[in-house]
Amino acid sequence: MENRIKIERAILNITQDELAKRIGVSRQTINSIEANRYVPSTVLALKLSGEFGKPVNDFFKLSNDD
């Protein structure tokens, strides 16, 4: 799975820590998602969607390996 979390954070001008606090996870979780080491749950993806004000499909997409 590919994601644009880092880009979306930059648009909002917030750090990994700020985003993590807003959605109730650790900074390490955000880092792992951005590095494609962790695929978030549906609940977490929907929380991110709410923070970015965009549909989940705007910042997550399946890669050819999925």
Descriptive overview:
The protein has 66 residues and is mainly alpha-helical. The protein has a single domain (2-54), classed as 434 Repressor (Amino-terminal Domain) (Orthogonal Bundle), CATH 1.10.260.40. 53% of the residues lie in helices and 6% in strands. It has helices at 5-12, 16-23, 27-34, 42-52, and strands at 2-3, 60-61. It has a two-stranded antiparallel ribbon.
Concise description?
This protein is mostly helical. It is built from 4 helices and 2 strands, in the order E-H-H-H-H-E.
Keywords:
66 residues; mainly alpha; 434 Repressor (Amino-terminal Domain); two-stranded antiparallel ribbon; 4 helices; 6% strand; globular
- Spatial order of the strands in the main sheet? 1-2
Number of domains: 1
First-residue to last-residue Cα separation? 7 Å
CATH superfamily: lambda repressor-like DNA-binding domains
Helix content percent band: 40-55%
Pfam families: HTH_3 (PF01381)
Protein name: Helix-turn-helix transcriptional regulator
Domain HTH cro/C1-type: 5-59
Organism: Microcosmobacter mediterraneus
Blueprint (SSEs and pairs):
Elements: E1 2-3, H1 5-12, H2 16-23, H3 27-34, H4 42-52, E2 60-61
Antiparallel strand pairs: 1-2
Protein name: Helix-turn-helix transcriptional regulator
InterPro entries: Cro/C1-type_HTH (IPR001387), Lambda_DNA-bd_dom_sf (IPR010982)
Keywords: DNA-binding
